[in-house]
Amino acid sequence: MSRPLVARIRLDAFCHNYRVAKEAHGGQALAVVKANAYGHGAVQCAQALADEADGFAVASIEEALILREAGITAPILLLEGFFEASELPEIQAQDLWVVIHQPWQVDALMAMQLSRPITVWLKMDSGMHRVGIAPDQYRATYERLKGHPLIAQIVLMSHFARADETTSPHPLQQVDIFRAATAGISAPVSLSNSAAVLGWSGARTDWARPGIMLYGADPFVGQRDATGAPLGERLRPVMQLEGAVISVRTIACGEPVGYGGTFVAERPTRVGVVSCGYADGYPRTAPTGTPVAVDGQLTRLIGRVSMDMLTVDLTDLPQADLGSRVELWGDQVPVNEVASRVGTIAYELLCNVKRARFVYSGTSH
Ligand SMILES: *Cc1c(COP(=O)(O)O)cnc(C)c1O
């Protein structure tokens, strides 16, 4: 027996979403599985895609080593490169690809006694102003790296700050800056995250870097294309976060529920207690009214989310009872919907899931 809180991960949906990304973008695609695959389990996700992914991307060598130890032989890109030059021997030994985004990394790489050819993704700061080589330094940096006999391939790379805003001119300004600074350089290019894959055909290049869309969350949060269809229409949610009703009571009109008594019944109210709380990653700030689905029917969260439990309104669901299945997010309750209620994004909610039992389906592995 165990506490009834399960994160069901559908690996077939993950693979489907990867194919959607590749089809929408063309060319090749690195599946971004950093932060334990946005909370879904990096090893399971990467293994499910091992036969078809062009490569994977992670945030650090620690994340890459977990995949290598699990038998992933595909290319793995370190999205922030190395944090210390001392990582370079292991990067070489494990045959990892590195992003180079600041001058000291170039110096460290050039000074290193390379043992085998290495692939570098040279990142430009085309307007996000977080990391990347400045556009006016970019060509000289590229030439310097290109002069090294063991730098096997250089992919030209940049990242968008506002690709999830369909009406912002900023992404195309970034593309213009990138194109001007790389004019005449003949090398593969990678610009697009999920939002650019789905929404910015002007940013299509050799390599896409889809992340959130692989997990089935629409990066445009329901924004629509010219035909009125949601941009992320073809994506399938990968995670179903499911708790169960572990207690039921009916309270009288005027009675409060939970810490702080923030919800007060306006009619006799049947309250269901669910086995999920903020220690599991469900946001404590979710207000009364946030949708949940009980045995397939939509109802609402009521009162304050506590550490191990939350409370839902079962008044109009007389058939719901002890043991009823409660979807916190998944097919019926989009994780984007919960995120927007609490002023965050699906990325953060998915990454935060913990303590749940992870159950994988949809693959032969
Ligand atoms: C995380 C990340 C991505 C993936 O972004 P999504 O919005 O999740 O698609 C792509 N590129 C870089 C550099 C990243 O850090």
Describe it.
- By secondary structure, this protein is an alpha/beta fold.
- Helix content is 26%, strand content 24%.
- The chain has helices at residues 11-25, 34-38, 42-49, 61-69, 88-93, 103-111, 135-146, 170-182, 194-199, 335-341, 346-351; strands at 6-10, 28-32, 55-58, 76-78, 97-100, 118-124, 151-158, 189-190, 207-208, 239-251, 256-257, 263-264, 269-274, 291-294, 297-302, 310-313, 325-329, 357-361.
- The strands form 3 sheets. The chain has an 8-stranded parallel sheet. A 6-stranded antiparallel barrel has the order 10-13-16-15-14-17.
- A hairpin with a 7-residue loop joins strand 15 and strand 16.
- Helix 1 (11-25) crosses helix 3 (42-49) and helix 7 (135-146) packs across helix 8.
- It starts with 5 loop residues before the first strand and ends with a strand.
- The chain binds pyridoxal-5'-phosphate.
Helix content: 25-40%
Task: Output the radius of gyration.
Answer: 23 Å
Low-confidence stretches: none
Give the amount of beta strand, in percent.
15-25%
User: Globular, elongated, flat, extended or rod-shaped: what is the shape?
Assistant: elongated
Q: Tell me how many strands there are.
A: 18
Q: What is the typical, i.e. mean, pLDDT?
A: 95
How far the N terminus sits from the C terminus, by CA atoms, comes to 25 Å
Biggest sheet strand order reads: 8-7-6-5-4-3-2-9
Structural class: alpha/beta
Largest sheet: 8 strands, parallel
Ligand inventory: pyridoxal-5'-phosphate
List the helices and strands in order.
EHEHHEHEHEHEHEHEHEEEEEEEEEHHE
What's the total helix number?
11
